[in-house]
Structures are given as C-alpha cells and as structure tokens.
Amino acid sequence: MPDAPAPATSPSTSRSTSATIAPNILRYLVRVADAYGVDLQPLLTRVGLDPTVMGSAALRVSYRQGSDVIRRAVELTGDEHLGLRVGAAQHLTAWGLLGFAMMAADTQQDAIETGVRYQNLSGAMTVWSARWEDVGYVLRADLPDPALDPTVAVFLIEEAYSSVVTLIRLSVGTGFAPQAVEFAFSAPRDTRPFDELFRCPLRFDAARSRMVIPTRWARAAMPGRDPITYASVLDVLEKEMASRRDQQDLLEVLEISIAQSLPAVPPFPEQARRHASSERTLRRRLAECGTTYEAIVDGVRRERVEHLLARRELTLRDITRQAGFADVSALRRAVRRWHGVTPLELRTGLLERREAPTDRPRA
User: Fold this and answer.
1) At the top level of CATH, which class does the domain 238-355 belong to?
2) Are residues 95 and 122 in contact, defined by beta-carbon separation less than 8 angstroms?
3) Alpha-carbon distance 115 to 298, whole Å?
4) Where are the domains of the chain?
5) Which of 90, 106, 327, 359 shows the greatest Cβ crowding within 10 Å of its Cβ?
C-alpha cells in the first residue's frame, strides 16, 4: 500500500515564535485544568491570550505560547499524565473542517492520511506521519524540536497518541485498541493510566514514538463516509493550506530578517519596501496572520535573550546590547513581562534545565 502523504510542511525554527497553530490543545487544556480547580486564564492572559482572543475561531498561537502554558499547567495541576487527559477529552469537531473531512473519509486509513496531509490546520504541535511497515500500519508523532523542554515534550507525545485513540474509538467503535504503542521517554512511576487508555502492549525508552494500528482497524469503513462531501471539503482545505503557506512564508522571512539584523531592528517601512508592498498592505497581511510587526520583533528578541542568557560568560550589559535593548532596565522589564522573573532567575532556570540529566523524548 502507498505511504501516507508527507507532512504538509516541515518544522522550522521560526515555528517557536510565529503564531501559526490553531489553539485546540490549549482550549481542551483549559477544560481539563478547570476540573482540577486550576484557572489557567491569568496564565493565558500573560502570554497574550485573553478570553476574547481565545474565543476567536481565527486565533493562532505560537509554539512558544503553547509551550509556556503547557509547562505551567503541568506544574499547577501536579498531574504528570496531563497530556493523556487532554487527548482523551477531545473530539473530531474540535478540528473544524479537517475533522469533518476525516469523518467523511472512506476508511480509517484514509481519515488518518487526511489528518496527516492537513495537519498544519489541526492545531497539532507534533509532526505526524503514517505508513505501512512490516509490523503494520504505523502512525508516528515526532517533536518539532528535539531540544524541547522535557515536561512539554512528554505532554505533547502523550496528548498526540491519547487523542488518536480517543478519536478512532469515537469514529469506528470503542473496541479499538492499537497493536502496540512505543514512547521515546522513560516509563512513568505509574503506568496504569497508559494501560487503561491504550489497552495494548506498551514500550517506553523506544528510539522513536509510534503507534501500530491493526490492519483490520486501518481498513475499517468510516460510519460517516461520503465521497462527495469528502471531495468538497478537501477543496476548501486545499485553499486554506495555500493561504497558510503564504502566511507562514511571510512570517519566516520577517523573523529571519529581524534575527539577522539584531541588535538593530529594520524599520517597518523598510520591511514593506523589501516585500514590494505598502505599509498598509503589509500590516493587513500580518493582521490576517493574527500578529503585528511589533509582536514578531518581540518574539525574535525573546528567543535571542533566552539563547544569550544560557551563556554564562555574558553579562546583562552584553545581552542588552546584543538583543537591541536601550538599557539593562528595558531588558529586565521585557524578561519580567515574558516570564514573570528577573533575567538572573531565568538564567538559573535555563541552566538547570539544560544541565539536568533527563530522559527526553527523541524527535
């Protein structure tokens, strides 16, 4: 059988700052955290996601925003299996038209391959691929960045496979169970939640994470299959993907331009000239991406500051100069706004995280 289509776009370093991800995971994370009595709204507001923004169907978030919220949510709930809970709370309708297309697909394999092809529209924070291998039909979820914070990395892999199992059971029957699931992180202290959810042989410390789907389930007919509806929805998804690629290209070009120019920041009129555009048109295009030039500059500076703080030999004055801040006070205010801590406190946390031995999932 043919392999599933490759992911629509490959992960890139700019995905950490560009707001390109539908916030489905965060919306379900809020629900699950609320059941623990944890209100995530103050945290969401701090990273720029107030209630009005979160209620917008057009909202897109960045990997950095998503990672910040996930990391803190795990700490606040104290649930080391929070990713499993969030994945199990989902439904295909959360994926909008993509979920509708998957429900209208002919077989479960077709539904999965549709999800893989249009994954950039689904709010996925992992990189999906699917293909037939010697062991069966294999679905892989890889991390967008192998250096991702371990807590966030484990959450994302748990959420990815938990949501897949949950959605397949909603689609073709509660009797579904994978043939096997492998995780590229060490076994938790309590594996019972994994056993109860997946109901199949599990393996931890694997080279890569993967789920093997039995042939009969991969070929199972979708109850809502409708070839005419399926084809019509795919036409809409193709147009949305084309628009998304244009937006992603614009954001990447701007981020690269800013990063290469630091400590100076190219003025907005200059960026408009580089794109053979008027300032008004460029601002409109950025608004369609759900962002502003100022927000992109802020994201690039933030990433640069975190990178520089991880270098012990650099003083705050060095970092201030290299990141393009007017003075050390401006740097301190920015770090406080981003992280709620001082630059030195952030440096300590970054160094501890980098130097601590971890069983980090592998991409």
Assistant:
1) mainly alpha
2) yes
3) 32
4) 238-355
5) 90
Residue pair 152/70 in contact (Cβ under 8 Å)? The answer is: yes
CA nearest to 250, candidates 188, 293, 215, 300: 293
- Answer whether residue 225 shows pLDDT above 80: yes
DSSP lists the bridge partners of residue 140 as 129, 210
CA-CA distance, 135 to 147, in Å (whole number)? Answer: 29
Hey, which of 37-46, 173-182, 292-301, 344-353 has the most confident mean pLDDT? 173-182
At residue 342, the pLDDT reads 92
Judged against a pLDDT cut of 70, whether residue 356 lies above it is answered with no
**What b-and-e string marks burial along 15-48, b requiring 16 or more CB atoms within 10 Å of the CB?**
bbbbbbbbbbbbbbbbebbeeeebebeebbebbe
Q: Using a cut of 0.85, tell me whether the model's pTM lies above it.
A: no
Rounded CA-CA distance 4/6 in Å is: 6
Question: Which residue(s) pair with 221 in the sheet?
Answer: 107
Q: According to DSSP H, which parts of the chain are helical? A: 24-35, 41-46, 51-54, 63-77, 82-88, 97-104, 108-117, 150-172, 192-198, 215-218, 227-261, 268-274, 279-288, 293-309, 316-323, 328-339, 343-355
H or E element, residue 211: strand 210-213
At 52 the three-state DSSP class reads helix
pLDDT at 95: 81
CA distances (Å), origin 354, targets 12, 74, 360 = 21, 19, 11
Pick 58 or 328 by higher pLDDT. Answer: 328
258-282, pLDDT tens digit by residue?
Answer: 888 899 999 999 998 887 789 999 9
Report DSSP state, residue 16. Answer: G
pLDDT at 7: 35
